[in-house]
From TrEMBL:
Belongs to the MreC family. Residues 70-107 form a coiled coil. Pfam families: MreC. This is Cell shape-determining protein MreC. GO terms for cellular component: plasma membrane. GO terms for biological process: regulation of cell shape. It comes from the Bacteria. It comes from Pseudidiomarina homiensis. Residues 123-270 form the Rod shape-determining protein MreC beta-barrel core domain. Involved in formation and maintenance of cell shape.
Length: 293
């Protein structure tokens, strides 16, 4: 009579057979890619399970992102509303000052200055020469840009155009060592010359006597002399005054208002007395269509 539970192969024999089978399958898969269909089938079969496994985490991340974005948008919206309100108040104040200025000029018998024409431009490249501070903008003579044209940003004067091509122009920054600009102190109308030092964050005033009434913190604006930069635009603030008597002149360093190390969007000015006129893109497109016709 046979036993109900017959003994099979020993454990060592089973282990050896399993190793042989595993080694054979590994060899065949490595050489012949025999297990590739199996892997593809298993990957396809388990893909929905993997998706369901990570779905809660993705949904939670999405909800957190939406909540954070919504909160950030609220904050940005409120900040922009506050800035808009401030700008509207500033415009109202500016309109009042312009009207008051016009009235005073009429009383004094002076000619009222006409407003400058403007056009925005984008910086497309920066000069790689470490000894020259120049940028290239995406406006050229087809937009009415001309050599010597003043260029500003939202803080103050940046520089002037030194060469013009059809659709680009090169701007020399006020920080360049070859550039100088005539300024006046807003507080007491003292006229000075600011020379570029090669540093994007510092200019130097030339030929300042030790007895000067200039003070640290004085705001310097364009004087209008020289016929390049219109009068009254902010340029720099006096940061350091060194009255060392051993030197022939006082050393006066100023910090530009314009962020010359991160210029991106600039403003081209056409003074009221400029012979050139701005040519806007719509007008250029009309001219090109007429030329084609």
């Amino acid at each position: 009579m046979k036993s109900l539970f017959e003994h099979g192969p020993s454990l060592s024999t089973r282990l050896l057979l399993a190793l042989i089978v595993a080694g054979t399958l590994m060899f065949l898969d490595h050489r012949l890619q025999t297990m590739q269909p199996v892997r593809s089938f298993l990957s396809t079969a388990t893909a929905p399970v993997q998706y369901l496994a990570v779905l809660p985490e993705e949904m939670m991340d999405r909800l957190v992102y939406l909540a954070t974005t919504r909160s950030a948008l609220r904050e940005d919206n409120q900040r922009l509303r506050d800035e808009l309100l401030g700008l509207q108040m500033a415009v109202q104040r500016l309109n009042f000052l312009e009207n008051e200025n016009a009235r005073l000029r009429q009383l004094l018998g002076s000619e009222v200055r006409a407003a400058s024409r403007r056009m925005a431009a984008e910086v497309v490249s920066v000069a790689t020469d470490p000894f020259s501070h120049q940028v290239v903008i995406n406006k050229g003579y087809q937009s009415g840009v001309y050599e010597g044209q003043p260029v500003l940003d939202n803080r103050g004067i940046v520089g002037q155009v030194i060469s013009v091509a059809r659709s680009t122009a090169r701007v020399l920054l006020i920080a360049d060592q070859s550039h100088a600009i005539s300024l006046r102190a807003e507080r007491n109308d003292i006229r000075v010359i600011a020379q570029g030092t090669g540093s994007l964050t510092q200019l130097e005033l030339s030929f300042i006597p030790h007895s000067t009434e200039l003070k640290e913190g004085d705001v310097l604006v364009s004087s209008g002399l020289g016929g390049v930069f219109p009068e009254g635009y902010p340029v720099a603030e006096i940061s350091v005054i060194n009255r060392d008597e051993r030197l022939q002149y006082a050393q006066v360093f100023v910090t530009p208002f314009a962020q010359l190390d991160r210029v991106r969007t600039l403003l081209l000015l056409w003074p009221a007395d400029a012979q050139e006129q701005p040519i806007y893109e719509d007008a250029v497109e009309v001219d090109e269509v007429n030329d084609v016709g």
